[in-house]
Design brief:
Layout: E1 12-13, E2 19-20, H1 29-109, H2 115-196, H3 201-213, E3 219-223, E4 226-227, H4 236-244, E5 247-248, E6 257-259
Parallel strand pairs: 3-6
Antiparallel strand pairs: 1-2, 2-5, 3-4
Helix pairs in contact: 1-2
The chain binds zinc ion.
Amino acid sequence: MEVRGSSPLSPIFLANGVLKLKQGEKLDLKTQLGNLIQLQSIDSQIYLLKLEIERKPEEIKALEAAFEVKKQGLAQLEKNSLDLQKQKKDFELELASKEENVKKLQTQLYSLKTNKEYNAMLQQINDTKADASFTEDKIIKSFEQIDKIKIDIEEEKKKLMGEEKIFSEQKKKCDDRIKEINNVLATLESQRSQALSAVDPKILSQYERILKGREGLAIATVKENSCSGCHMLVSHQVINSIQMYDRLVTCGTCNRILYIENE
Ligand SMILES: [Zn+2]
C-alpha cells in the first residue's frame, strides 16, 4: 500500500512486526543493518556492564555481612569470657561463705556437752569442708577455662585482622571495578551517540523498543535456520525476505530484527 506525502526515507511499520519500505524508496537496508549491528555491539557491552554495576552494591553488602558474622565469633568469645569471670567470682564468694561456716562450727565444737553432739558437729564440719573443697575445684576449673578462652580470644583477634584485610581488599576491588565500569560506560556512551547518527530514526526507534524488552539484544543473526536470539526456527520464506533487503524482517517468536551474516 502506498502512502502519499511521507518522507522518501520513512519506512512503514506493519502489524506483524515487519518494517516495510514503500515502493521506490532508496533507504539502503543493507547499510542500515550494518549500522544496527555496530550499534548492537556497543549496546551489548553497555547492557552487560550496567548489569554488572547493578549487582555491585549487593556484592558489597554480602561481603560486609560475611565479615559481620566473623566479628560475631569474637564477640561471643568475649561474652563467654565475661560469663566465666562472673561465675568464678560467684564460686569465690560461695567458698568464702563455706570457710566462714567451718570456722563458726569449729568455735561451737568445744561448747558442746555430749559426745553425740560433738560427733554430729564434727561430721557437719567435715561435710562443709568437703563441700568447700568441691567449690575450690570449681574455682580452679574456672581459672583454667578463663586462661584458655584468653588464648582463643587472642587467636580470634589475629584471625579477624586477617579477615578484615581480605574484606578491605575485596571491597576495594569492587569499588575499583565500579569506577572502571563507569569510565568504560562513558566511552561506550559517546561511541553510541556517534553510531546513532548513522541509523534511520524510525529503524532506531524500533530497535530501541526491542532492546528494552529483550534483555539488551534487539538484532539477531540467523544461524542454521534459527534465530540466534531465541533459538527458534526461522522459515525459508523469512530468510528469503531478509535477503531481499526491501524491508526489516523480525523474528516471529522474539520479535528481534533478523539479519544474515557474511553475505
Ligand atoms: Zn527470535
